[in-house]
Amino acid sequence: MHATFIFCQSEMLIISLVFDLRLAEFEKQLSERLVSSVDFISAIAEDLVTAGGKRLRPKLAFLTADLLSVKDTDALNVAVAVELLHSASLLHDDLIDDSETRRGREAAFKRYGNIVSVMSGDFMLAKVLGVLAETNNPAFTTLMSDSASQICEGEVLQFQAASLETHSLETYYTIIEGKTAALFAAAIEGVAILAGVETKKRQALSDFAWSYGRAFQMRDDYLDLLGDEETLGKPIGGDLKEGKATFAVLKLFDFSSEARDIVMRHAANDDDINRMLELIKEYKTDDLARAQISLEVEKAISALDIFPDSIAKSQLQKLAHDELERVK
Length: 328
Prior knowledge:
Farnesyl Diphosphate Synthase, 77% helix
């Protein structure tokens, strides 16, 4: 790693305060976009807003604005549009995955039913169109359209691979790009588009976003199987039980037919998850997964070399670097 992340205490305090103000304005704008006269839609929207989450995509948009020294209004429009799209996808994903909870609360479709949950997600997608109309920027509209398409394709491909048993590394990368990296790219590159930055810088930001997004999702997948249950707050092996094959497992296919069998039966046997862990440790594919995450992190950090040193640049690079720290 060639990036350093050193901030003095006063700088961190100022950064934190500024971000709190920006995120407060973001939350206000998001809430206003989600106002509805229909009580069920309002309740679902309020749950999503108040539950909050990490708000990583808005943070990426604001850091990009700082990196490019452009106005916050561009970042705010991008942050709201991307978060609306993200929230819509969460409502649909929970239904597809039959998830019991979302951010510590009962999933919307469990509480209100499938129709209400799906249509509330569509309501949010309609609100994305409103933001795009107001920005009146064809390139940003195209970017958001591409992101929405990739999200859908990634989700369907994941289901298709599990159903037809067509797992491969190529398929896996397409899935994680659709699930995560596409929205990271929309949040980051969207700001560059609205700010009208030069093509070279826009491409650098896009490269950062895609590499960081892949590292982020690969880290999440790694911990789903190789993490600590107490830290995660949920049982490990959830992906296996859904018939999903993530990086360490896919690499294991090269050495063990038993690993493939476990995935194909969705880890239905009592000892399947423990056995998969034994195989991963035996063939050291966890090391391969960490090495691949490290490679994506390196690519993300290097992508920003084109930009002069700044607090925003260091913070973006640190976000990527932290993905590697979480799997050590």
